[in-house]
Amino acid sequence: MDIDAQRLTRRYGALAALDGLSLEVERVKVLALIGPSGGGKSTLLRVLGGLEGADEGEVSINGTVLSADERQLLAWRRRNGFLFQQFNLFPHLTARRNITLPLEKVHGRTAAEAERVADESLERFGLTAHGHKLPAQLSGGQQQRVGLARAIASGPEILILDEPTSALDPEMTAEVLELIGELAAGGQDIILSTHEMGFARAVAGHVAFIAAGKVAEHGPSGELFAAPKEEMTRRFLSKVMRFA
Amino acid sequence: MARRSERAPLGLDLLLGLVLAAMVCALFWWVFSNLDTAWGWSRAWDFRQSLWRGWLVTLELSAGALAGSCVVAGLLVAGQRTRYRSLRWFSRAFVELVRGMPLLTLVLIGYYVVFAQSQVAGLLDRFGVGSKLWTGAALLSVFTGAYLSEILRGGLESIPQGQIDSARAVGFDRFQVFRWVVMPQALRRVLPALAGQFVSLVKDSSLLSVIGVQEFTAQARAFNSATYGGIEAFLPLAAGYLLLTLPLAGVAHAMERHFRYQM
Q1: Cα–Cα distance between B163 and B177 in angstroms, integer?
Q2: Chain B residues 41-70 within an 8 A CB cutoff of chain A
Q3: Quick check: B180 and A84 CB within 8 A?
Q4: What contacts B260, CB < 8 A, 6 or more positions away?
Q5: A70, A82, A90, A99: best mutation site toward chain B, by most B Cβ within 10 Å?
Q6: Is the pLDDT of residue B11 over 80?
Q7: Which of B21, B82, B178, B231 fits a 20 to 30 Å CA distance from A144?
């Protein structure tokens, strides 16, 4: 995928979550956003995913220019998949219904087709026994796997993951990361923000370090992790990797 | 969701139940043994037809106002959530005014100022809705609708932003977010409060006797003043209202169980 973001600004009241952020990458399969909390990773993902428009600046992905027009953003959201840190699933619907409902109402599949797709993806993620359960009856890792199954059920162009494992314990983190790794190996284009540096290094081809609403530096993950150019990146990496 | 606490010891539970039952019986026995009137159930029996008619009127009023109040509440909620500030303020003011007035006041003003005006009454008659029953149902709808709208608004606003984000992320448009994600969860949360409001509506319909609607309470009063029937008029009245309100509460509880899920 190609991303071309120019001078993106997004303000919440007095706070500029994105402060003139620019990022240009071409032919990247998996892009990881790393950096301190509150640096703007989530906001950038929300803009790239079409959940909200930027106040200033321009962004295009794979040649599609994202405007602030809600109808255009809706069409863009429908082409992609999105997974949040938590509060993903609809608590009043079973795991299976969580997957089939958008397929039917958004993507126009028949009920039978939607169920076939849901059962396939549940099986692929080892959740066949849990399809009939409500989210509250599932562990955090299972919930996040269902969320992942829902996000990819429609065959998204790009899968966007906002700290998909931050709310999970280490064991559940491992099972979710493994699935994401499988999806990446299968050729799925992915943009994710993460605090799992080992995972970013292993799976992402390209890494961007984001702080204070800007991209401090970005590059192929091997280079960035081995020899960060910016002092800020070095300090961040030495802190978070101390016990790795 | 309230978790049922652990079971109390059975023996103690039974004993407590017996004590409570005995206390209720004693209270009733004391109250009724002190009534020095002789029971006169034959008079109540003679009045059964008008009581029955009154009960049916109350049933009609309640059913009509139940539907009407949902429409009013829907409009007021929509009005308070629209982009148009003027409409929001209007709806807000409407809710506050109606909720700030006793129902009796609203009914009297509504009837004497609005519906009893000859032009208005004539117009309503032309559409076949000129009767006091229609007027009463409309006033009750407005009153209950204002309360319902606040309950619904509270429920809608209690749904976390994360759910709305999640719904938009899977590609739902504004209406679909509301229809499939926000509304079902909000309704489940406010179901107990809605049920309480509907039960209140049934009971509030008794106030419409002041504008001459011949509903259940009005008939019981007429019976009382015609025969000095007293308690024989009011016990059937209590039973008649419970016959309407208890099933309503039962349906609400069944729905709560059916739509149960945990956040």
Answers
A1: 9
A2: none
A3: no
A4: B1, B188
A5: A90
A6: yes
A7: B178
Domains, chain B? 48-258 (1.10.3720.10)
Helix (H, G, I), strand (E, B) or coil at B84: coil
Residue B8 has what DSSP assignment? P
CATH class of A1-9+28-80+156-244: alpha beta
Residue A10 has which token pair?
């997004």
Q: Does the distance separating the beta carbons of B172 and A105 come in below 8 Å? A: yes
A90 vs B: CB within 8 A: yes
Q: Do the Cβ atoms of B117 and B135 come closer than 8 Å?
A: no
- pLDDT tens digit string along A5-54? 999 999 999 899 999 999 999 999 999 999 999 999 999 999 999 999 99
B18-32 pLDDT, tens per residue?
999 999 999 989 888
**Hey, are the CB atoms on B171 and A102 less than 8 Å from each other?**
yes
B38 Cβ contact list (under 8 Å, min separation 6): none
* Residues B181 and A88 sit within 8 Å (Cβ to Cβ): no
C-alpha span between A145 and A139 (Å, rounded): 10
Size of interface A-B (CB pairs under 8 A): 61
Helix A111-124 with A95-105: angle, nearest 10 deg:
130
Q: Are A34 and A215 in contact (CB under 8 A)?
A: no
Beta pairing, strands A30-34 & A206-211: parallel
Give the one of B169, B170, B184 whose C-beta lies nearest to A92's C-beta: B184
The SS3 assignment for B72 reads: helix
Instruction: Please enumerate in sequence order all residues whose Cβ is within 8 A of that of B253, keeping only pairs 6 or more positions apart, or say none.
Output: B195
Say which of B163, B170, B188 has its CB closest to residue A102: B170
Q: Which of B65, B145, B132 is nearest to B98 (CA)?
A: B145
What does the longest C-alpha to C-alpha distance in chain A come to? 55
Domain edges within chain A: 1-9+28-80+156-244, 89-155
Query: Exposed/middle/buried for B227, CB within 10 Å: 0-12, 13-18, 19+?
Result: middle
> pLDDT for A167-206, tens place per residue?
888 888 998 899 999 999 999 999 999 999 999 999 999 9
Distance CA B145, CA B103 (A): 12
Whether B3 has a pLDDT exceeding 60, the answer reads no
Chain B CA closest to residue A138: B262
Q: Which of A77, A91, A106 is closest, CB to CB, to B261?
A: A91
**Phi, psi angles (nearest 5°) of residue A107:** -105, 5
Q: Does A76 lie at the interface with B, CB-CB under 8 angstroms?
A: no
Place of tokens 């997974």: A83
